[in-house]
Write a structure and sequence with these properties.
ten-stranded antiparallel beta sheet; globular
Length: 189
């Protein structure tokens, strides 16, 4: 149902609590069924330093950019969850259920969803049978580089569920990526 909407996605990247960049993109699904993003606004890059300090800063910037690309690719591996991978985890007996509120809320945990040792937790409202959020514990290259992902789900007037707030926390690099989706409106057919 989300394919009939367009929305604005705001991405804020912070390192050690300091905002480093902010970007806004208009998002919609194209005729090919793929998600399209058109950049609307972003913060300008910081002024470049010269000399040895500039080279060191450029090297750190390149390392952080590479880290962010891997982190964003990792987010896309979990959001939205792939039904085939959920089924594979179920078939392998790697699913457990945590009751959060009896008769109201539960979390389905899918171990080894994308990588060995990771966990994808899907919190579900048992009354309305809709997803409330996702919690992911995973890593980038190795287990030392732990990454957590917290996704809160929103609901539009017609009942369509969407990821409203996504927060990625890369503790090793003290990096936080926060993505907020807003301004949903139906596209014309």
């Amino acid at each position: 149902m989300l394919r009939q909407y367009e929305w604005v996605e705001t991405t804020v990247v912070s390192v050690k609590g300091e905002e480093k960049s902010r970007k806004q993109e208009r998002c919609y699904y194209g005729a090919d069924g793929g998600l399209q993003k058109v950049e609307e606004a972003s913060t300008p890059p910081p002024e470049k330093k010269r000399g040895l300090r500039g080279k060191i800063a450029a090297s750190k910037q390149e390392e952080m950019t590479d880290y962010m690309k891997h982190a964003i690719a990792l987010v896309r591996a979990y959001v939205p969850p792939n039904p085939a991978k959920l089924q594979a985890a179920k078939d392998a007996g790697k699913v457990s259920i945590d009751v959060l509120q009896p008769g109201k809320r539960a979390r389905l945990n899918f171990r080894d969803y994308e990588k060995p040792g990771d966990n994808l937790g899907v919190e579900v409202d048992l009354v309305s049978n809709r997803p409330l959020g996702l919690k992911v514990a995973t890593y980038l290259e190795d287990a030392q580089d732990a990454v957590t992902l917290d996704v809160k789900m929103g609901q539009l007037n017609d009942g369509t569920t969407y990821p409203s707030d996504v927060t990625l926390d890369g503790k090793a690099k003290k990096l936080t990526v926060a993505v907020k989706s807003s301004g949903y409106r139906k596209t014309t057919p």
